[in-house]
Design a protein that fits this description.
about 25% helix; seven-stranded antiparallel β-sheet; about 170 residues
Length: about 170
């Protein structure tokens, strides 16, 4: 694929991820995060993933599980009875996008937070591909050791190691 086509595809994916973030902010008081995600992406599979434009998308929320530290994928039940968890889930989340078929529909993987930060990885180490073949904990693009979506994305440009071992960097 020519450089111009790759660059256009990356911009299109980044725009899609920003669209999710913009709509989530816009409808914060009107609907659940799951409903907002569905408004943008359409239907979800049993794992809580949506497929659109050759990429699989999966959103994660903070779990409130201090012992394990994994974020909740969209299909899990939210913790009941603790307002702190609900508050965190309203304002902290991330959404990953990876190729439906690596090397055919794309090569790179992307992630965005509620702040609109978009990072990418060349996906050569992780090989995220297809439904069920993406990040499992939600912490993969964050600095190694990050738990429950707290902290910052690992920036390979700064020598930071990511939770999945890949080299994540800001989309430029």
């Amino acid at each position: 694929m020519a450089y111009r086509q790759r660059r256009t595809r990356i911009i299109s994916l980044a725009d899609g991820l920003h669209n999710i973030a913009d709509r989530a902010r816009q409808y914060r008081q009107e609907a659940t995060l799951r409903q907002r995600f569905l408004q943008v992406m359409g239907t979800l599979n049993a794992k809580g993933e949506a497929t659109k434009t050759g990429y699989v998308y999966h959103m994660f929320l903070p779990s409130g599980d201090k012992a394990k530290g994994d974020a909740l994928p969209e299909t899990k039940k939210l913790p009941a009875g603790d307002k702190r968890h609900a508050d965190a889930q309203e304002v902290r989340w991330c959404c990953y996008a990876w190729p439906e078929k690596v090397s055919e529909t794309g090569k790179r993987a992307f992630v965005i937070t509620q702040k609109g930060q978009v990072f990418e990885t060349d996906n050569s180490l992780q090989r995220y591909s297809g439904a069920g073949g993406g990040p499992k904990t939600g912490n993969e693009a964050f600095v190694k050791g990050t738990r429950n979506l707290k902290g910052e994305f690992a920036n390979a440009d700064k020598g930071q190691k990511a939770g999945d071992g890949g080299k994540w960097q800001p989309v430029k």
